[in-house]
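Q: Fold this one first, please.
A: Sequence and structure below.
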Amino acid sequence: MSDEQLQAGSQDMERIRDIIFGTQMREYQQRFDVFHRDLARLQQEIDQLNEQLAEQDSNQGKKLQTLRRELRQADDDLRTELRETAQRLTTDKVERRDLGRLFLEIGTRLNEGESVGELLQNLVGGDGDSGRDD
């Protein structure tokens, strides 16, 4: 067989194959094209969702950093206030004698029948009759 005969036979085989399988092959090709388009569309949607997720992650990271700074500042403020209060308590202690006199006066007033509410009001109001030496 010559090359021309082989080529003619090959063309004949292609025609026969096209006649037998042509319709199915075109359907398969159309389906493949639809799948390919769907896959490309889905990939594009995935890419968009990944971008949105990255943006949200960035925003949440910024918010978290802000909250950490605020928490650190609040902690520092609280510690400073606690140190100041402790320092004030250390320097502004009540003398034991003054405290003893205050307790004696409270006891005396309670024995005399004064109510706790009146006693507290008099102590807070500073009626001048507390017996303390200021």
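Q: Good. Now the second chain.
A: Here it is, same layout.
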Amino acid sequence: MILDTTYIIDLLDGQPDAVKKSEILDTQNEALFTTAISVFELWQGVSDIKDKKKLEKIHDLLDNLGLFSLDKESAKIGGKIHSELYAKGLPIQPEDSMIAGICIKHGQKIMTKNVKHFSRITTLEIETY
């Protein structure tokens, strides 16, 4: 399962629903991943963080997740998704299209609270919390 940026942020912030979902995931022994896109999105906000313990928490969490990059095939899938949604008048953030492409290429479902955007992608399996 790929953890989306929204889930990672909620987990780091100690949001009860994200923490509870994390506890459930821990019992399921499912491999957990994130994407290079989510790392990029997280790092956009890192310069504002002055609390060293919070930064350490981010590093620890990312160190314990597998990582999928945006390779050529997942970029093609994400680009097609983005183009099709835009043509339908249902655009989503380019980063979300890229993450979806990575999920689909690797046959992974996505853990997210951003169901509004990701549910527009019919070939993507979504899990929420």
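Q: Anything worth noting on the second one?
A: Helices lie at 5-12, 16-28, 36-44, 52-63, 72-87, 94-105, 115-118.
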